[in-house]
Specification:
Trna Endonuclease, Chain: A, domain 1; seven-stranded mixed beta sheet; 11 helices
Length: 319
């Protein structure tokens, strides 16, 4: 976040509660915030994810007094921060502050505040499909628009709209007429995960099924089927014992029933989703981006730990 926005968040907090507050960008991390007689080390975030909280806990041990100043904080994240005694200020006015003689807890304002502007095509259902491929291959953005359309499987006319959306939100910086430089790629990844789970994933779900027999005995056509979710994560990391199964497929219900003895069942353990990328015949597992998003959608401590492993080993290097 830029300094002006941090100051706006701080000033709003101070005015609401009749406190004196001053933000100084000079200092460790993202500067200092002085409220009354207390001074806190500031950590500025656009959004904050659960896998980032352990680092903040370590920082609290080192700096003692820290505060997160953020645009968006989701309820589960705020709960974790409060549980670990980490102060926060949110753009919409929500706050948690506990210090000597001071206690503030506000969680009544609607939010989170979304940065996606109306009409931005980068974060629509189709735009999220394009972003998926751009996040997997950071050099794809500098190919021709025709090539990007071919790789992503969307209409050619969609590509310039997605590029404009990414430029508007500051994630793409034009170097010249043909080349772009990525900016804030980690933040963009987090926004894709959120958008995937709220906007795209629900459109991909084809129903719940039950597996007749052992999933290990199924011989899928891997050009059309790949495991996602907890099972995909276990195959990638050998760290998670799956309780639920997710299958991404290009096959219809009739083919799934006939070829793999997978039967429709409303409360079945298997969720089947539409595959929107081209699979390679030797891959059992969906791309790590999708596994990560699936785990964050399901939630739970073990899933989030596994998601962090997948991020560190398979995703971060490409951002």
């Amino acid at each position: 976040m830029y300094i002006g926005k941090v100051n706006n968040i701080v000033n709003k907090f101070a005015q609401l509660h009749g406190l004196k507050a001053k933000y100084n960008v000079v200092g460790p991390q993202d500067g200092y915030l002085k409220i009354g007689k207390e001074r806190y080390v500031v950590f500025c975030r656009g959004e904050l994810r659960k896998y980032q909280i352990p680092d903040l806990i370590e920082q609290k041990e080192f700096h003692k007094k820290i505060i997160v100043v953020a645009e968006n904080l989701f309820p589960a994240v705020k709960g974790e921060l409060v549980a670990h005694g980490i102060n926060y200020l949110e753009e919409n006015g929500n706050a948690y502050m506990k210090a000597n003689g001071l206690y503030v807890f506000v969680d009544v304002n609607r939010g989170p505040v979304k940065k996606t502007i109306k009409g931005n095509r980068a974060f629509t259902k189709t735009g999220l499909k394009v972003l998926f491929h751009l996040l997997r291959n950071k050099n794809l953005i500098n190919e021709t628009q025709r090539e990007i359309a071919k790789v992503t499987g969307v209409a050619l006319g969609t590509i310039p709209q997605v590029i404009e959306g990414l430029k508007e939100t500051g994630y793409l910086i034009p170097l010249n007429n043909k080349e772009y430089l990525w900016e804030n790629k980690l933040e963009l990844f987090n926004r894709w995960v959120e958008g995937y789970n709220t906007d795209l994933r629900p459109k991909l779900v084809k129903g719940n099924y039950t597996i007749k027999g052992d999933w290990r005995e199924i011989r899928f056509d891997r050009n059309k089927n790949q495991w996602g979710g907890e099972l995909g994560a276990d195959l990638l990391t050998n760290y998670l014992r799956p309780e639920k199964y997710e299958l991404y497929t290009k096959e219809d219900q009739k083919a799934l029933i006939k070829n793999y003895r997978i039967m429709p069942k409303e409360d079945g353990e298997l969720t089947v989703l539409e595959m929107f990328w081209e699979a390679k015949g030797n891959d059992k597992v969906v791309p790590p981006l999708v596994v990560y998003a699936d785990l964050m959608h399901e939630g739970g401590k073990r899933n989030e730990e596994t998601a962090e492993i997948i991020f560190n080993e398979h995703i971060e290097k490409n951002l």
